[in-house]
């Protein structure tokens, strides 16, 4: 993780890749769920363009592949991705479902933080990690983009 290992290096929701900060990418339909707090200072992080409600039916997940969190503290063990996302959907305070697994995707670890600091792109051959950021639906689109940020 190197220069990106500090949890707030890119502020809330900021993605650190090789020391550079950016916001989560737009969805496949072009919806931008995040914007820079200050475009001149990307390390200040990103803010949501639409505030999350507690109504699970109004949420979807923005998948960001090859990305992890500087701190991974597992809330659920031996679960699959769908179970991880469902657990986040049912928890109003959950902001993202972080899923990590080694060989077997049906037996992974799930972290459900209530606050999101910096995210980190990575290249790791020992485990797979994806982040599913909970976003407020702004259209009737239920399946949001799959984004690969690998260098």
From TrEMBL:
Q: Which domain of life is it from?
A: Eukaryota
| Keyword Signal included in the entry's annotation | yes
Q: Give the record's keywords alphabetically.
A: Signal
Q: What is this protein called?
A: Apple domain-containing protein
């Amino acid at each position: 993780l190197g220069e990106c290992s500090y949890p707030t290096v890119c502020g809330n929701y900021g993605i650190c890749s090789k020391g550079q900060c950016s916001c989560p990418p737009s969805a496949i339909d072009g919806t931008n769920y995040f914007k820079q707090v200050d475009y001149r200072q990307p390390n200040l992080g990103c803010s949501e363009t639409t505030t999350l409600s507690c109504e699970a039916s109004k949420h979807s997940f923005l998948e960001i592949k090859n990305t992890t969190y500087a701190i991974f503290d597992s809330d659920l063990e031996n679960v699959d991705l769908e179970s991880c996302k469902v657990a986040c959907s049912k928890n109003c305070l959950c902001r993202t479902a972080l899923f990590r697994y080694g060989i077997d995707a049906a037996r992974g670890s799930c972290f459900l933080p209530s606050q999101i600091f910096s995210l980190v792109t990575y290249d790791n051959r020992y485990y797979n990690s994806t982040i599913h950021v909970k976003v407020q639906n702004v259209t009737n689109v239920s399946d949001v983009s799959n984004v690969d940020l690998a260098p």
